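Saturday, quiet lab. Running sequence design on the structure tokens for the scaffold JK sent over.
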């Protein structure tokens, strides 16, 4: 039961983190707005809530000495995935901070990042946080106030990662993967290889067919020339 809860929390954190990265890349672009900045704030706060829940669950389980060896190995694997996800979240938060300083909303300027995207991003955030409608009453200086909050939240995430390392030391190189590297791509590769093989066979077949036709034409032409020459020789004689 605990294992399933940890997996569910980790899956939710992955989705929200991916959503946050998607929206961070639109800062300074044609779809940047006060709504985007507010959605970024709500999404990263949701990610931090999930991160705290993940940390508490996994820390408690990994400190429990009654857990079996197999279960502990699985929880350590989840811990490594969680730590990596948290690092990605921190990197994206720092990126959002830098882009927020470079592209303040209260200073009108030409968009320096042409992302090719337009429109709102509420749909992406809503899907990540299981909310149908996300309507925000954004303040006029949301970007200025939010950047200060973002700095504090980055420090909090950094402190969380440090505390995690102090409480539970799980080196990444000691955790074994459940499947071989690239195993999830083998089926795709095999399908692609078979498709390529079929294409190459078909190409070879078509090439052989063309060669046979050309050979037949040449043989017929040579035969006709031989017949004409034979007729001419008979007449001359």
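Result came back. Writing it out in full:
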């Amino acid at each position: 039961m605990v294992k399933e809860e940890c997996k569910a929390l980790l899956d939710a954190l992955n989705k929200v983190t991916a959503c946050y990265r998607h929206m961070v890349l639109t800062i300074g672009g044609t779809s940047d707005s006060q709504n985007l900045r507010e959605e970024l704030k709500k999404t990263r706060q949701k990610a931090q809530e999930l991160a705290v829940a993940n940390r508490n669950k996994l820390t408690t389980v990994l400190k429990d000495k009654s857990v079996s060896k197999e279960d502990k190995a699985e929880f350590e694997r989840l811990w490594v995935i969680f730590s990596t996800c948290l690092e990605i979240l921190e990197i994206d938060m720092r990126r959002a901070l830098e882009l927020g300083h470079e592209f303040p909303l209260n200073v009108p300027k030409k968009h320096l990042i042409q992302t090719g995207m337009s429109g709102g991003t509420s749909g992406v955030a809503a899907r990540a946080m299981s909310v149908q409608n996300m309507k925000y009453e954004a303040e006029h200086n949301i970007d200025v106030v939010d950047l200060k909050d973002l700095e504090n939240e980055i420090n909090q995430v950094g402190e969380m990662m440090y505390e995690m390392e102090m409480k539970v030391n799980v080196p990444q190189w000691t955790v074994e993967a459940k499947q071989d590297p690239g195993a999830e791509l083998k089926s795709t590769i095999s399908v692609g290889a078979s498709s390529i093989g079929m294409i190459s066979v078909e190409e070879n077949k078509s090439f052989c067919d063309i060669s046979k036709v050309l050979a037949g034409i040449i043989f017929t032409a040579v035969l006709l020339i031989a017949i004409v020459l034979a007729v001419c020789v008979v007449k001359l004689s």
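Notes for JK: The chain has a mean pLDDT of 77. The radius of gyration is 32 Å. Ask whether to fix the surface positions before the next round.
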